[in-house]
Amino acid sequence: MTHPDFTPDLEAIHSIDAVPVILSMVKHLTGMRFAAIARVTEQKWIACAVDDSIDFGLKPGDELVLESTICHEIRQHRNPVIFGRASHHPIFSQHHTPRIYGLESYVSIPIVKANGDFFGTLCAIDSVSADLEDPAIAKTLNLFAQLIAMSLDSQSHLEITRKALVAAQEQGRLREQFVAVLGHDLRTPLSAIRMSADLLESKVEEKRSLSLISAIRNSSTRMGVLIENVLDFARGRMGGGIPVKRQLVDDLGRTVKLTLEEIQASHPRAQIVHSLDIPGGVYCDALRISQLLSNLLGNAVTHGSIATPIRVRVYAEADELVISVTNQGPPIPQALMPLLFEPFTRTEAGQRGEGLGLGLYIAAQITTAHNGNLSVTSTVESGTCFTARFAARFKWV
């Protein structure tokens, strides 16, 4: 029975598809009838793979007494040992290993990994003599041993990479679960803040107090948007995208107008002009479209110039609904363009601004969930324009 400590070694050799071919080639090259790969340590000699035509009796997992083998010595000096006639050899005619196992011919090539660790040996034995004088035989056997070592190294690297990937995935899963739970739990105190602000406003008349209450409400609204963005980010990362519930919406124009009014109320200094030509019967998730527009407008307000208006257009083009938001201001650096729709891009790019850098990511995810796409152009002359478009069924009224 194989010692459990050596099970990984046996599995590693077994998983190398070339091993049976290598052992067969060793027998063919040397004319010997037994070939094996052995794991050799300071205490153990374990057969990992065997090709036996002389009924020597060893099977994968079987063990020989280490001191009875020449591999014990090879592990120390790390040089190949090859002889074709033990009975006439000046050294091995007196060696105990040929005598114990009745060997006349013998080959043992060290298998050494790239980091210098000694794995074991590639062996061949027979009870009859073999012609092993050709230098090409030793050279080919060494190449076979190197091939086995390289395969073992590749397996080790793949296993390390696999474990690192599993660990990273688990860390990511736990992190995203934490974010989702945190975002969900933040909703309760935020609702209490909003309700308290509404209650205070109904009982207070003093102008300064009303101003403070308005500030509380505006801050809680911004916090609510941040929480929803965090939740959507977590849902998207854990569930394969942000979920949408598409249906035929006859009053999408009303939803869009309400969204524009909310953004304008939250950012009174911003100049927002709009052109809406929205048909009835738009197949979409109206709440998600509102969120999409809100995120694009929020980005424009934060990064655009307050001296020029933000232009919003929502219209039908062929069978698509198009939503565009354009603002003036410094153009987006070309190096940042490929990253715009990735989460936390603003933080990674070292840019300042409100929020977590999730707005454009979530806008892109909502567009994708509608089987559409979100694109951007940014120049000094035309400003920065984000355009979302997706196929929709229209019922013109």
TrEMBL record:
One Pfam family named in its UniProt record: GAF
CDD domains assigned to the protein according to its UniProt record, in alphabetical order: HisKA (cd00082)
Keyword Magnesium: no
UniProt key word Ribosomal protein: no
The reaction(s) this protein catalyses: ATP + protein L-histidine = ADP + protein N-phospho-L-histidine
Key words, A-Z: Kinase, Phosphoprotein, Transferase, Two-component regulatory system
Matching PROSITE patterns: HIS_KIN
Histidine kinase domain: residues covered: 181-394
Transmembrane spans: none
SUPFAM superfamilies with a match to the protein in the record: ATPase domain of HSP90 chaperone/DNA topoisomerase II/histidine kinase, GAF domain-like, Homodimeric domain of signal transducing histidine kinase
Entry's Gene Ontology molecular function annotations: kinase activity
Domain of life: Bacteria
The protein's Enzyme Commission number: 2.7.13.3
Protein known as: histidine kinase
The species this protein was found in: Pseudomonas violetae
